[in-house]
Amino acid sequence: MNNIVVSIIIVVVLLAGAGFAIYKIAPQTPSAAPSGAAAVSRALIGFSLGTSHEERWQKDADLFTARAKELGADVQVLYSGEDGNLQISQAENLIIQGAKVLVVVPYDAVASKAIVDRAHAAGVKVIAYDRMILNSDVDLFLTFDSRKLGELQAAEVVKHVSKGAFAYIGGSPTDNNASLLKEGSMKVLAPLIKSGAITLPVSSFSTNWNPEEAYKSIKGYLATGKKLDAVVAANDGTAGGVIRALIEAGLSNVPVSGQDADLAACQRIVQGLQTMTIYKPLNDLATRAAEEAVLIAQGKPAQTNGTMNNGKIEVASYFLDPIVVTKDNMDAIIITGGFHTHDEVYGKK
């Protein structure tokens, strides 16, 4: 054995004896972790987003990653860009990389069952994030109550107009949340339709939540010469498309709902072009999801406050409360809360 090899062995032995762990990264100490959630030794958590179309998803990913890292876990974020097959492939890759938990925002609520099946076959747990994975044995669901969101959207519009021709512009037909949102809105609208107070000549979904599809739906109807008195739009993106079509038809005062508190929507609200949006505290959702993922990675039970049926099982769930935002409480909720700045929403003076 030559002198160099002997020297290396001596150094390694001395380091080990001094308390150094070779090839092992010490876990970080969690800050304000949930009860029982200690740091893990760099557990890998995969965050699979089936969409990046809406403004909010980058914020979700950033907030989730920051909290998970505080708790001592690593996060690999992958976007599939509205491609269900790619999302399944990316999830398989995360499993191969050794992810302990997959957090999934499914592009296709039905097809994403394959992600759950393949993850479970490898002993990996799956959390559905803000969008349910249908007909699967998904381990946990974290979200805001979409039926309640839809009800809030329609109720706020009806506060302004309770008679006439309404349009419903929904989200993506592959997203279970879009169906739940419509169910909630129809809880408010159906009695008015039945009484004859309102009609619903336009009721459509928008593939990939695409604002252009929302625009075309409203544009096509208005091109017939008919008018609309109110529009319940499922999110801020579709609301933007709706409002563009309304303005082109000279109907800039029609009440329109939204969701997500996108910056453009908040700007439209203070300008009087959009009636409301729903603020879903993303920090609360992303932080809770990161904490639950760490707990699950440790083999500990998740913290839940309800269940939701996904067509196969009652999924253990955690529901957070949404907040209606209008022109009247924009400053108190959005500005003071730090979601957007005053200059961003109102423009620099």
Your description of this structure?
- By secondary structure, this protein is of the alpha/beta class.
- The protein folds into 2 domains: 28-144 and 282-320, 3-Layer(aba) Sandwich (Rossmann fold); 146-259, 3-Layer(aba) Sandwich (Rossmann fold), CATH 3.40.50.
- Helix content is 42%, strand content 17%.
- The protein has helices at residues 3-17, 56-70, 84-96, 113-121, 146-160, 176-195, 211-222, 236-248, 263-271, 282-297, 330-335, 342-346; strands at residues 44-49, 74-79, 101-105, 125-129, 140-144, 164-169, 198-204, 230-233, 277-279, 306-309, 314-320, 323-325.
- Helix 6 (176-195) links the parallel strand 6 (164-169) and strand 7 (198-204).
- Helix 2 (56-70) crosses helix 10, helix 3 runs parallel beside helix 4 (113-121) and helix 7 (211-222) runs parallel beside helix 8 (236-248).
- It starts with a helix and ends with a helix.
Short description:
With 349 residues, this protein is α/β, with parallel strands linked by helices. Helix content is 42%, strand content 17%.
The gross shape turns out to be: globular
Give the class from helix and strand content and strand pairing: alpha/beta
The domain tally reads 2
Task: Report the biggest beta sheet as strand number plus sense, adding barrel if it closes.
Answer: 7 strands, mixed
Average residue pLDDT: 89
**In terms of per-residue confidence, which ranges show pLDDT below 50 for 5 or more consecutive residues?**
1-40
Order of helices and strands: HEHEHEHEEHEHEHEHHEHEEEHH
